[in-house]
Design goal:
Elements lengths: L7 H8 L23 E4 L6 E4 L4 E5 L5 E5 L6 E8 L13 H17 L6 E2 L3 E5 L2 E11 L5 E10 L3 E10 L3 H13 L27
Antiparallel strand pairs: 1-2, 3-4, 4-5, 5-10, 6-8, 7-8, 8-9, 9-10
Helix pairs in contact: 1-2
């Protein structure tokens, strides 16, 4: 399979559907099991799964079955899960993107995306975490939306040799105390599914054109 070019812009804008703030930690251990009333979501395409509170609203599947959005019972908040293929050329041993390269591209395109809206983004330092047992990067930033409401976003993503996983969290800064503890418990239930370093059954065949959207 030859390496296919996928623009970082398309990859991030798909994620855009979807720390000094008080951190959401992407932990793998779950010392406090979720309540029996919590619901389960499993992605049929990439195999990742998560438990979430019963009062969260599950949205429809994202294009190509790559993930889903969820809405906590707090206005203007959103929780999105995605899976994607690592098809971008980069500096890894397979000549595909590394996690650091993905993070650099993510930073740049977020700045461009909000810059076009004349919205200033205030970044916190990136954090090395894990997501479903894989090394991951957590990016946190804040901004004021069109109504001058202060918003916080945290993007957590892992990237293997062939596939990656992403979580996007968005919520009003005024809701952090109420929402962060719940988000932390939700993330403890996350499982990455299929091995991200294995050859993906969804990788394009030689000669195919990569779509590369992650939504």
């Amino acid at each position: 399979m030859r390496l296919l070019r996928v623009t970082g812009r398309r990859l991030l804008l798909a994620l855009l559907l979807v720390a000094g703030f008080g951190e959401v930690t992407a932990a793998d251990e779950n010392p406090n099991p979720p309540l029996p009333s919590w619901k389960s979501y499993t992605n049929a395409r990439f195999g990742f799964s998560i438990r979430y509170p019963a009062d969260w609203r599950l949205g429809g599947p994202l294009p190509d079955g790559a993930g889903v959005t969820m809405t906590p019972p707090i206005s203007h908040s959103q929780f999105a899960l995605t899976g994607f293929l690592n098809l971008v050329e980069g500096a890894s041993q397979d000549k595909r993107q590394t996690l650091d390269e993905f993070a650099t591209t993510h930073h740049r395109i977020i700045g461009e995306y909000y810059g076009k809206k004349s919205i200033t983004v205030v970044w916190q330092a990136d954090r090395a975490v894990t997501l479903g047992g894989f090394p991951a990067t957590q990016m946190s930033f804040s901004y004021r939306d069109e109504t001058k409401r202060e918003m916080i976003e945290q993007h957590i993503f892992s990237l293997g040799r062939n596939e990656g996983r992403g979580v996007r969290i968005k919520f009003p800064a005024s809701s952090r105390a109420a929402l962060l503890p719940v988000l932390a418990e939700v993330l403890k239930t996350y499982h990455a599914g299929r091995d991200q370093n294995a050859v993906s059954p969804f990788a394009p065949k030689d000669g195919d054109r990569a779509i590369g959207t992650v939504r």
